[in-house]
Design goal:
- This protein folds into three domains: 3-8 and 17-111, Orthogonal Bundle (Fumarase C, Chain B, domain 1), CATH 1.10.275.10; 116-364, Up-down Bundle (Fumarase C, Chain A, domain 2), CATH 1.20.200.10; 366-467, Fumarase/aspartase (C-terminal domain) (Ribonucleotide Reductase Protein R1, domain 1), CATH 1.10.40.30.
- The chain has helices at residues 21-27, 30-33, 37-53, 59-77, 90-102, 115-151, 171-196, 215-222, 231-234, 239-265, 293-317, 330-353, 359-364, 373-382, 387-404, 413-419, 433-438, 448-463; strands at residues 156-161, 164-170, 198-199, 226-227, 273-274, 356-357.
- The protein has 468 residues and is mainly α.
- Helix 3 (37-53) crosses helix 8 (215-222), helix 6 runs parallel beside helix 12 (330-353) and helix 7 (171-196) packs parallel to helix 18.
- It is built from 18 helices and six strands.
- The strands form three sheets. It has a two-stranded antiparallel ribbon. A two-stranded parallel ribbon has the order 3-4. Strands 5-6 form a two-stranded antiparallel ribbon.
- Bound molecules: arginine.
Amino acid sequence: MSHTDGPQKAWAGVFRVPTDKRVEAFSESVSFDRRLADDDIDGSIAHARMLAACGLMTVQEADALAQALEEIRGAIHAGRFEFTAAREDIHLHIEAALTERLGDTGRKLHTARSRNDQVATDLRLHCRRAIDRLDTAFAGLQRAFLELADREQGLVIPGYTHMRRAQPVLAAHQLLGWCEKFARDRDRLADCRRRTNVLPLGSGAMAGTSLPIDREHVREALGFAAVATNSVDAASDRDFVCELAFVLALAAVHLSQWAEEWIIYSTEEFGFLVLPEGFCTGSSIMPQKINPDVLELVRGKSARAIGNVQALLVLLKGLPTAYNRDLQEDKESVFDSIDTLEAVLGVAAPLVAGTAFDRARVTAALDRGHLDATSLMEALIARGLPQRTAHETVGRLVRLALTRGGSLADLSDQEFSGEYAGWDGGLRGALGASRAVERMKSFGSTAPAAVAEQIAGWRRRLDGAAAT
Ligand code: ARG
């Protein structure tokens, strides 16, 4: 085959020379946009039906197109469809296959349509489907955290700030904190879906069409919420792609933070968590190793999700009005973000489901690190001491305990009285990590009643119909 062979181009009329093979190889996108095949076929069937309804083709022609498009879908799914760089992208592949089957009827499908509004529509359909799958996957992860929180009800763990022991919290409280983050991620997905769910098809290349089309007909058929109002903007708007990539990058950051925390909590040094063995891997040289590689990859994969946002923003920043071929480069970034998050969520939920706390180890070490200092300070405030005075008083008591090498509860009543004249045994009720948790009162706190209410609330949200 010489460098001039190959199928005739959709744009052949004006050209005196065939496309250079090197250009075909350089500009093809079918190697990655073939994953839009289902969306392209859905869009084309809706478009053909609309053309028939508007008298731009017969109903028989639209029926033949729809049937042939379904056959092509079947062939693609079955791996019986030939892809070639010479046909450039998925849109031209499917159209060429139609024309092979139907002749002139196939040549009518592209009436009142440009690949510019076509690819924009396909990508919106694709992202909308991905958003719905991802939302379900995030809900599954939330459910896994909820179940673990429920199983660990009553377990008090040290809470950390600056990675230093801070205040005791219920393990369930901290676990449900992840549910909150993923709820915001799902909320952002839903918001992004709203702006994705707008129909560009009918915008043509950029100016619309002089043919009597009915965009509302296509909107209805494809389930879009609205028709884009400005053809110049609609055929090149990729805000929804950037938004989805960002939402997924932030979710990947949440997942990375979680992974980092659990890597630390499952170390021999911490020993809080026991990861499921099936979700750990070993070392080829050190026989004893049970490594948290899955969590490390969850953390590591956030890098590409973050990078994809950067790539998309830079891609768009120099583009003048309407479609420019640069836009073809949007796909691999957003596809990669979708694939990455789906892969991460696919292992995260079962990993959480299979994880348990080492309750004995957590509890044995709980009364180290003066987790009850703030609790004692608040008890003194409740007795009328100004906060700064109470803070200083407890600070001096902690210093005394540090000198003794014990906890606050190990100090004698005499030692307490030396720092606070109003000391009485009742104040000992504020000491100890477990008691500190039980004394919590505020809404949203780690108070056992508040946490039980959170668990019930998450059950309603995740088991109810309108789960978010
Ligand atoms: N493959 C192209 C893309 O992904 C389709 C649109 C091409 N349009 C054009 N006029 N060259 O953006």
